[in-house]
Amino acid sequence: MKTFLISGIPGTGKTSVAKKINEKYGYPFLSLGEVVVKNKLHCGEDPSRDTKIVDTEKFNAFFRTFFLNQKEDIILEGHYADLIEHPSVNIAIILRAHPNVIETRLKPRGYSKKKIMENIQAELVGDSTSFMLEKTELVKKEHVFEIDTTNLTIEEIADKIHLIFKYPEKYPEDVAGKLSWLSDNSVHIEKYL
Ligand SMILES: Nc1ncnc2c1ncn2[C@@H]1O[C@H](COP(=O)(O)OP(=O)(O)OP(=O)(O)O)[C@@H](O)[C@H]1O
Asked: Which parts of the sequence are annotated with region: LID (predicted)?
């Protein structure tokens, strides 16, 4: 059984892409946000960010049992992906997107300006990637990949991820750590400070 993670800040397309991979290639997936709510694995709300605070002990107790029973390959998607404790995640994919795109996607959700700003700032500095790379006991650094989804369709992203799952060694240019919005001239950082 192989375990794949898809992470990234809200609006980068994690759920849409996981659904497409499932549809085209048959990998089952779990949305971690839904798992947390359904199984009451949170210990509070963070009202300023309008998000759940995960009870990491309950979360990992849940996943210990889950992994014992899981026999087929599985994708776990969501921005809680780096909280998982697992000895051998095969591949982690971080979806990235241009801050303008994130802004356009999060505005219609009715998020507060503060929440939108916090998410864009997290994308600007690549928080999802840094958190994943810190978890060396979870996944090897060379198996953490980043995809800039800005100009890709959901299907193109799904196809690319499927290839990375199958042949990770063929995609060294996508290994995490190369993408930087801070050095991209099309990003007006001052808008987000
Ligand atoms: N590559 C893309 N091209 C066009 N639209 C996209 C793309 N990726 C995502 N979207 C759109 O952006 C919105 C957010 O996508 P989605 O819910 O899959 O993101 P998410 O990362 O799972 O967000 P969350 O973490 O909040 O669940 C959806 O309306 C989706 O259709």
From this structure: 108-118
